[in-house]
Amino acid sequence: MRIFHLSAECYPVAKVGGLADVVGALPKHQNQAGLQAAVVMPFYNRKFVHESQFDIVFQGTSLLGTRRIYFEILKEQSDKLGFELYLIKIPGLLDRENVYSYPDERDQFLAFQLCFLDWINWSGQKPDIVHCHDHHSGLIPFMMYHSALYTSLAHIPTVFTIHNGQYHGAFGWDRLELLPEVDFYKTGLLEWAGGINPLASAVKCCWKYTTVSPSYLYELTKSSNGLEYLFYIEGQKGVGILNGIDTEVWNPATDPMLPSHYNATTVTKGKAANKAALCQRFEIDKAKPLVAFIGRLVDEKGSDLLPAAIERSIEEHGDTVNFLVLGTGDAETEEGLKQLKETYPAQCAIFIGYDESLAHLVYAGSDFLLMPSRVEPCGLNQMYAMRYGTLPMVRSTGGLRDTVIDFGDEGGYGIRFDQVSVDDICSSINRAIDLYKDSRKLQTLRKRMMALDFSWGRSAKEYTDLYQSLIS
Ligand SMILES: Nc1ncnc2c1ncn2[C@@H]1O[C@H](COP(=O)(O)OP(=O)(O)O[C@H]2O[C@H](CO)[C@@H](O)[C@H](O)[C@H]2O)[C@@H](O)[C@H]1O
């Protein structure tokens, strides 16, 4: 069975967040299980691309409205990622450094989707399944099934995975002319709330959509930035499949980004060595419990509450707890965190920016990982944390609810709280500080977490079963 995954991100080619981790790992596991999975993504002017060798396997032109665009399909020569990697290169449009935030982003992703369809339409490279991820490839199901240009693709099942239902990629009807011509009566399949909405269109037109955790499937009907009713009426097409993690990349026993390696047996010593390196780098005291946050500084993650919650905890507990934040995003939150560092230099480590290897060290060297998310479709950080013996402190939502059991409950290992509020965050920090004093208990919980299996095996099988059900 041949599957094409369509995504804007894929680790290690180009990563902004968790989408990249999933698209960089799932196809590898699908191939190990005997499928033929490949990733198709835009070309980025980035390190991985410079350091890899590519063949041009197709050249063509697509029409973006009246604009004729020349494109190339580049295939990575060695399949070193464990899957075939195809990059779509369009001079002047898909050959830039960053993944998002260009003013013509809508054109970029539309062109990406059109060129993909033109390529598989003309080259005979037809897969058995087209698997689209998030709104950047959300118009593909509509175009495959409703555009006269692509009738030869109309029998291919599409699966659409929602990693983040808050972003829809919507645009106005004035841009309808950029899409291939369709019968006017079909344009309702593009529409939501008065505009063209790629996420909504994908949900309407795909054969099946999946969410990255079972809880999130339900939560989209309650909160999805205006698409709640759509998810309610299309609910029978939805399946919740929990993400896995790439246990080869995320393995404290072999992780090349860590100064000291460890496993469940050596966790206490191993984490202490990594914590020492981390604390030395940020000049904070390694003897105190270290509560960390890693992620995009956006409302969904509850990061706007971090400055107030950290300040209150430091005021309450005095010099007995340290905090580390690694992230970038909302300017006000960044400013609040910088001020925090100035006020409490000995207790706060703040890194504004994106740093993959520092993230690995933080998972290994922290005692607790805080995730006060308002919305968390799955969340990978808590799974990485647990794999590295770091206790997750999570708000009960989405995939956090599905993966973390409170240590106060039977067989539990983490800290859960209900509200996205400074009060709840601070109470969870109080519990973390108390737990840290009980080193024997902490050690038991660390070993318990490290024994959990969040690898892709089970989830990859669920995707295979889903594909199979569509093909047959
Ligand atoms: N400043 C920084 N420096 C270094 N590394 C950083 C970083 N900021 C974030 N990261 C890394 O980016 C990834 C973020 O993963 P999340 O699951 O939190 O992703 P995100 O919200 O982007 O993804 C969406 O998709 C994923 C995948 O489906 C879902 O798990 C999630 O709930 C959903 O919101 C992790 O690997 C983390 O370590």
Descriptive notes:
Belongs to the glycosyltransferase 1 family. Bacterial/plant glycogen synthase subfamily. Pfam families: Glyco_transf_5, Glycos_transf_1. Pathway: Glycan biosynthesis; glycogen biosynthesis. Helices cover about 35% and strands about 20% of the residues. Strands 3-4-5-2-1-6-7-10-11 form a 9-stranded mixed beta sheet, with helices on both faces. It has a 6-stranded parallel beta sheet with strand order 14-13-12-15-16-17, with helices on both faces. Strands 8-9 form a two-stranded antiparallel ribbon. It has helices at about 20-30, 45-50, 105-125, 140-145, 200-205, 215-220, 230-235, 265-280, 305-315, 330-345, 355-365, 380-385, 400-405, 420-435, 440-450, 455-470; strands at about 1-5, 35-40, 55-65, 65-75, 85-90, 130-135, 160, 190, 195, 210, 240, 290-295, 320-330, 350, 370, 390-395, 415. The protein starts with a strand and ends with a helix. It folds into 2 domains: about 1-245 and about 455-470, Glycogen Phosphorylase B (Rossmann fold, 3-Layer(aba) Sandwich), CATH 3.40.50; about 265-455, Rossmann fold (3-Layer(aba) Sandwich). It has about 475 residues and is α/β, with parallel strands linked by helices. Adenosine-5'-diphosphate-glucose (ADQ) binds near residues 164, 355, 377 and 381.
